[in-house]
Amino acid sequence: MARHVVLLMVFAAALSAQARQEKESDPVYNGKKGSEWVKTLIDDTSARRRALAVDALAKLWADKKYEESLPNISRTLRLDSSAAVRARAAIAFSGLSDKEVLRVGKDMIEALGTEKDSRVRRELAAILSRQPALAKLGVANLTVALKDPEPTTIIAVADALAQAGSDAKSAAVNLAPLLGHEDKGVRRAAVIALGRTAPEGASAVAETMARMLATEKDLDMRIELVASLGLLGEKSEHVIAALARSLADPEDELRRRAARTLGTFGAGAAAAADALLKAAGSDKMKDIRVDAVRAFGSAVAPNLKARLKDLLPLLTDRDYEVRLAVVEEIGALGNELKSDAGTLRVLRGRLSDPHVKVREATAIAIRKIEKKPEPKDPKKESEPKKQP
Asked: How does pLDDT run across 68-78, given as a tens digit for each residue?
């Protein structure tokens, strides 16, 4: 009798375990099993009911990780006849985590390549814009999608291409014409994307942006133009002139960006040296004056010694940060100034500067200038150079 009881208990436990497994493998949502929702999604003639099935399967994935959810939503995204249902599928994928999105990334890119509905394209592009790795894989289809008629979709696509970086350089052929688009948001998205994709034909793109900077009224657009010109790194006459004019703009942020961008151009910004010097001596913003001093130093680097007469007056600036920048730029010349008694005399005057950082920097600069060059070792000079 006891043996039979034990056997019954084991049998009951096995049935219970099987029931739990079946429940987990085919979970229920809103009174229907997952498999029933899959059937509805595939076979039902009603677009409304198929859309509800997408939502149900998305919920079953989120709550139960129902394995049939993602592949069937992917199938719907690629094959369903209703744009509304396909859009629902794309929206369902937008709620996935980064790792989960990678599981369906290939399907999304494939769907983007065949999708005709603007809303669905926009949803897919928005997901790719948050996934640089997928955006890089989808460059070809994203490039084609730039021809979409809806501005909001074009913006989402351009944002995704910006995330793809230099892998999307071939997209310039479709991005560049958007710089003249009637919609401001589209123009801005194109400016951002072109600056970050290292486009083919960068010089022509930079020239167009420089012309835009000269006439654009919107501050956000002007800031993005300066940022993208810096990223493109093209140092043509028109680009440098446009950035130099921006140093006199009434907007603080634009002047700051222009000074810092010119500072990254090194000697390529030589044509803007006078504009930088003016900004260094007169801008109302301390940090812009500092940036202008640094940019001036790098712009005239090969001839900085000859321009010291222009830089030295800035040692009387009211803010110590500007005086510090000037001292450091002068000190960088080092032993080149060993016979420049006038500059050394002015520098020594800064040894009594009110701010300790300027005094310390001045002492360092003077030591660099007065330091005797190390004598050449005749033995090393006579040693034959090693062949690589």
From this structure: 999 999 999 99
In this predicted structure, what is the pLDDT of residue 13? Answer: 45
Q: Give this prediction's pTM.
A: 0.83
Tens digit of pLDDT for each residue in 352-375?
999 999 999 999 999 999 987 666
Query: What is the distance between the alpha carbons of residues 1 and 101, in angstroms, rounded to a whole number?
Result: 57
Q: What is the total residue count of the chain?
A: 388
CATH class of 304-371: mainly alpha
Tokens representing 175? 């991005």
Residue type present at position 377 = D
Start-to-end Cα distance in the chain: 91
CA distance 369 to 350: 15
Say how far apart CA 111 and CA 42 lie, in whole Å: 17
Are the CB atoms for 168 and 145 separated by under 8 Å? no
- pLDDT value at position 11? 44
Enumerate the domain spans of the chain: 304-371
